[in-house]
Amino acid sequence: MTKSAGDYFSKPFPRRKSVGVNVGGVTVGGDAPIVVQSMTNTDTADADSTVAQVAALARAGSELVRITVDRDEAAAAVPRIKERLERIGINVPLIGDFHYNGHKLLTDHPGCAEALDKYRINPGNVGFKAKRDKQFSQIIEMALEYDKPVRIGVNWGSLDQELLTHLMDENQENGSPLTAEQVMREAICQSGLLSAQRAEELGLGRDKIILSAKVSQVQDLIAVYTDLAQRCDYALHLGLTEAGMGTKGIVASAASMGVLLQQGIGDTVRVSLTPEPGGDRSREVQVSQELLQVMGFRSFVPVVAACPGCGRTTSTVFQELAQDIQGHIRDNMPIWREKYPGVEGLNVAVMGCIVNGPGESKHADIGISLPGTGEEPAAPVFIDGKKAVTLRGPNIANEFKDMVLDYIEKRFGTGEASASDDELSSDVA
């Protein structure tokens, strides 16, 4: 029987079977949900700023946080950072990002080796020529000593040049059946797989190994991970490196990882956005969550559906109302996750006119259809698919916000209103 496009895309393909890895109490791979990861951009030697940013990322929903460990001062600060985070109730697993000198830092700073929950190493710069295997082995031995998992993270910007040259020469001898781009992709896959094989030979179990293969072009990422997923059952970390700033980085990351996730590939994700000067680092966490949520893999925050607006909706009331509710929800989710179990599955609709307003509102848990240009100044509110009330007058927005908070409390809470909830109803749309 011929399949339609809907047969393929109505739901994701089954998740690729991978070996589960315990990272500081968070499982990556296996049957676990796809995990959101982020990375600080502070100087790790500055414990104050690093603690603050790790805490912000964790509160935003990052389930793993990677920090740079590039020199003695940074390595020495790691135990203090871990201790201070635990003291303020932030128990997010910390991953140490090592390049060039990881073997030395882990050996010289046992407190760092112990405090970290995972080590990330790059086979392209773990060591060069005769030192490569020795220094790689040292890191794996430290992982074995402290019972830590390792992410072997290949990056095309620091790819093993000896391996790449070897594969290029071999390809030329075979009459160049592959393009230079295909050889580069193969080198990325082989670099990760050969390193993982070597780690296993040294005694590191498959349940301690995560692979990543970072590139900066969408089609390259899709091709490399599709190939890698077929050649191993290691847990895979997805991420488009050097994705860029703003909408470009968001679109490129979502386009590439969305295709892979749809195929069941990927156990943990990071959206590597270049922050604007002074920008919020946790933005990449929000984008990762939204990617997983809109694709139906996980629920992190209640969804607020709002129409895009047109000539029927010259009033900005529905825009301001949707923004107020969405912002309040996101700001309060760290508290609401504990106070209102299951609230992340809530759907709210804020619609701007009669065309799609009533229908969209009926599909939401709670929704409002505001009057469009020229429409009767009345706003029907639907709760659990049924019309509950019609709001009228100048205070429609605030009345609906109160109804949303009341719905959350009745459905997910204990019946006790919170001070933070009262703040939303006092805002003027």
UniProtKB/TrEMBL annotation:
Q: What class of enzyme is it?
A: oxidoreductase
Q: EC number(s) per UniProt? A: 1.17.7.3
Task: Enumerate the spans annotated as IspG C-terminal domain.
Answer: 304-404
Q: Where is the IspG TIM-barrel domain?
A: 21-288
GO molecular function annotation: 4 iron, 4 sulfur cluster binding; 4-hydroxy-3-methylbut-2-en-1-yl diphosphate synthase activity (ferredoxin); 4-hydroxy-3-methylbut-2-enyl-diphosphate synthase activity (flavodoxin); iron ion binding
Biological processes per GO annotation: isopentenyl diphosphate biosynthetic process, methylerythritol 4-phosphate pathway; terpenoid biosynthetic process
| UniProt cross-references to InterPro entries, sorted A to Z | Dihydropteroate_synth-like_sf, IspG_bac, IspG_bac-typ, IspG_C, IspG_TIM, NO2/SO3_Rdtase_4Fe4S_sf
Transmembrane stretches in the record are none
Q: Which parts of the sequence bind [4Fe-4S] cluster?
A: C307, C310, C353, E360
Name the coenzymes or cofactors required.
[4Fe-4S] cluster
Pfam families in the cross-refs: GcpE, GcpE_C
Spell out the reaction equation it catalyses. Answer: (2E)-4-hydroxy-3-methylbut-2-enyl diphosphate + oxidized [flavodoxin] + H2O + 2 H(+) = 2-C-methyl-D-erythritol 2,4-cyclic diphosphate + reduced [flavodoxin]
Family classification: Belongs to the IspG family.
User: Which HAMAP family has this protein been placed in?
Assistant: IspG
In terms of PANTHER family, this protein maps to: 4-HYDROXY-3-METHYLBUT-2-EN-1-YL DIPHOSPHATE SYNTHASE, 4-HYDROXY-3-METHYLBUT-2-EN-1-YL DIPHOSPHATE SYNTHASE (FERREDOXIN), CHLOROPLASTIC
Official protein name in the record = 4-hydroxy-3-methylbut-2-en-1-yl diphosphate synthase (flavodoxin)
Supply the source organism for this entry.
Pseudovibrio exalbescens
Q: What is the lineage of its organism?
A: Bacteria, Pseudomonadati, Pseudomonadota, Alphaproteobacteria, Hyphomicrobiales
